[in-house]
Amino acid sequence: MRPLACITMILTTMSAVAQTTDFSSYPVYAGSDLGLRYEASASSFRIWSPSADSAELVLYAQGTGGTAIRRIAMQRAESGTWTATLAGDHRGQFYAFRVRIGGSWGLEVPDPYARLVGTNGRRAVIGDISASDPVGWSKDAAPAFAGKSQGKASATDAVIYELHVRDATIHPSSGARWKGKFLGLAERGTKSPEGESTGLDHLKELGVTHVHLLPSYDFSSVDESKPDSTQYNWGYDPLNYNAPEGSYSTDPSDGITRLLEFKQLVQAFHKAGLRVVMDVVYNHTMTTGTSSFDQLVPGYYYRQRADGGYSNASACGNETASERPMMRKFMLESLLYWVEHCHVDGFRFDLMGIHDIETMNLISRRLHDVKPDILLYGEGWTADSSPLPDSLRAIKRNAYRLDGIAVFSDDLRDGIKGSVFEHVEKGFASGKAGMEQTIRFGTVASTLHPQVDYGGVNYSKAPYASDPTQVVSYCECHDNHNLRDKLAISAPEADSRTREEMQRLAMTIVLTSQGIPFLHAGSEFLRTKKGVENSFQSPDSVNAIDWSLKSKHKDFHRYIAGIVRMRRSHPAFRMRRAEDLRANLRFLEGLPAHVVGYRIRGEAVGDTWKDILVIFNGGDDSTSVVMPEGGWKTFVSGNRIVDGVRAKDSQDLKAHSATILYRD
Ligand code: CA
User: Fold this and answer.
1) FRET pair for 189, CA 20 to 30 Å: which of 45, 133, 598, 607?
2) Cα 118 to middle of ligand 1, angstroms
3) How far is Cα 273 from Cα 210, in angstroms, rounded to an integer?
């Protein structure tokens, strides 16, 4: 997440409240019935608002506008909660809450626990969430993603593909019927005008295991009441954490339709053998003083500075306080809902460095109990400073203290292609000198290895992962220039064919690194965002995936799919424990500058390739290395798959190329 134009709305009165409040004295509600419990005979509501002196449930006939049908005084209940019960079937009615604090009524806000919401998420809907189950939902199950005969999956068995719901199908070339919608990405058999598969079928063909959807909960920035032809946002502006985004549904006014279509997407992916990861943004809310959180319990859900003002580690106007029991509980219950009710298979935590380690480890334990092979990872950093000490937060250098949660390696990302902040800077793949130790560091997934000189690594000067399962390897995501654009800006002297080789090398490094590989949508066929660096609200003309690129760069795409297949077939690239890595992966010493090479004893880790050699030449010139003795076969030479060709004793390494050899 790195939008620069989050709307900031901090009410100074709220800061004053925060300044004078000791939140640790607030009661903690332990029950699991916050929000709405619907039955045809009655609907029950409960909110937590310990500082309120009155609370009201307000009913409406519509999701926005109009006047209230009824205002119902809520009853004070245990542990700072307020309750109301409506006899009879109120399905389809909308509701909001407001509370009175210190004699003043606040704003009406949607239920923070709302699962069904109306247009623009202004009000929640009374209804039965199970009415949103698609046909066959009770039989829906996540597919296995471990390699054959490997038993229980490890996070390193995953190949993640990051995708924005709208980007996937909004371009005419997607061939999808429901362009830009959850249903569009759930469609099978879609083709580009050139006859290439698109959308879900494309991901199946590419061979990835997990699709990671950019924010798909209800975000604020896109007006769901308007035709969507001109609106766009990544969605890092959370409004309702437990309801799907309306602009991706065919009817944003209908809470059931929103949820049904999200589930249909999950179901379609599961049927196709892929898993679904959600990008979640619990670290901040779109607005501060006017959010449901702050209207119901002023100050409580956010951290404050010493002077009482809201701290802002998200750079979006606020940061939530995961260490406070009811925020921790909110996150946990929200995540459990997405897994248990919506069958989601993993989460990517935006600015995870804002959350505290204790909360993240609790979340991990509880989610792994429900789904043992759930995939959890996040950004181990913040966008600004936080009052919570670094030692308590889930930042990258504390990754070894996180249990079953991985962090993104910006070391590898920028080591491969150059800093995302220095646009013209090159990286290893585009010819920058002195990046060998950074590539070694990425290869061993930021773990301890005797042949990595940590002083020579670009950012981290020490290992931060205790096992390769704790690191996500990548060189491109939705943030910053995409890889093709970055290479065009930083290597303008290279022709487009040369830059294509750089991109092949860059992606091969990611897909052969230990750790969890992560690809951004379209990088496998040279997608461009036309040089736009931060496209969080750029139009479709910048963000939409042009599927015609797939046939234009068919050879490129087939190469990447081949490397994905290789990784998934060879456990040597997916080691689970750092001790296996230290014992079985040896870097080749004495290589020319710009060259990194390593050898894996595949046999020792159950691979059919008994011995594997991987060599990357990031330099602008070709070079050669003498092979270790003994009958090597070539899998990749000069960024091309040439499986089975007998390797020469001296291996030529083209500029900006990967070489992969094996003995079987
Ligand atoms: Ca929305």
Assistant:
1) 133
2) 9
3) 9
The Å distance, Cα 116 to ligand 1 centre, comes to: 12
Q: What are the φ and ψ backbone dihedral angles of 284, each rounded to 5 degrees? A: -155, 165
Per-chain residues with Cβ under 5 A from ion ligand 1: 218, 245-246
CB 295 within 8 A of CB 109: yes
For 527, residues 6+ apart whose C-beta sits below 8 A from its C-beta are 482, 484, 521, 545, 546, 549
> 640: which DSSP letter?
E
Catalytic residue check, 533? no
Residues found in the chain: 664
Task: Read off the pLDDT of residues 54-63 as tens digits, 9 standing for 90 and up.
Answer: 999 999 999 9
User: Which residues touch 575 (CB under 8 Å, ≥6 apart)?
Assistant: 156, 468, 514, 581, 584, 585, 605
Encoded tokens for 415: 């080591």
- Considering 162, 294, 350, 476, which one is annotated as catalytic? 350
Are 565 and 207 in contact by the 8 Å Cβ rule? The answer is yes
- Told to judge if 643 belongs to the known catalytic residues of this protein, a careful annotator would answer no
Lowest-pLDDT range, 17-21, 164-168, 174-178, 192-196? Answer: 17-21
Q: CA 541 → CA 47, 170, 269, 363, distances in Å?
A: 43, 10, 27, 39
Neighbours of 474 (CB within 10 A): 26
Instruction: Calculate how far, in angstroms, residue 215's C-alpha sits from the geometric centre of ligand 1.
Output: 10
Place of tokens 């909001």: 96
Q: Over the stretch 399-450, which tens digit does the pLDDT of each residue have?
A: 999 999 999 999 999 999 999 999 999 999 999 999 999 999 999 999 999 9
Ligand 1 centre to CA of 221 (Å) is 7
pTM exceeds 0.85: yes
- pLDDT, residue 314, reads 97
State the residue for tokens 């334990």: 365
Task: Reduce the DSSP state of residue 160 to 3 states and report it.
Answer: strand
Residue 274, both tokens: 């892929």
Span 355-379, average pLDDT: 98
Residue that the structure tokens 């699709």 belong to: 211
| Rounded CA separation 446/411 (Å) | 9
Q: Are 35 and 67 in contact (CB under 8 A)?
A: no
Distance 169 CA to ligand 1 centre (A): 19
Cα of 218 to ligand 1 centre, how many Å? 4
> What does pLDDT average to over the chain?
95
Exactly one of 237, 379, 414, 436 is catalytic; name it: 379
Q: Give the Cα separation of 557 and 559 in Å (integer).
A: 5
Span from the CA of 625 to the centroid of ligand 1 (angstroms)? 56
Q: And the tokens for 611?
A: 């011995």
Q: 594 C-alpha vs ligand 1 centroid, how far in Å? A: 48
Which long-range contacts link 578-584 to residues 24+ away (Cβ below 8 Å)? 578/444, 578/445, 578/447, 578/448, 578/449, 578/465, 578/466, 578/467, 578/468, 580/604, 580/605, 581/444, 581/445, 581/447, 581/449, 581/468, 581/514, 582/447, 582/448, 582/449, 582/450
**Given pLDDT bands bounded at 50, 70 and 90, which one contains residue 563?**
very high
Of 494, 597, 560, 501, the C-alpha closest to 202 is 560
Q: The tokens of 165 are what?
A: 């719901």
List pLDDT tens digits, range 208-267.
999 999 999 999 999 999 977 789 999 999 999 999 999 999 999 999 999 999 999 999
- Both tokens of 435, joined, read 């990046």
CA geometry: angle 451, 452, 457, nearest 5 deg: 165
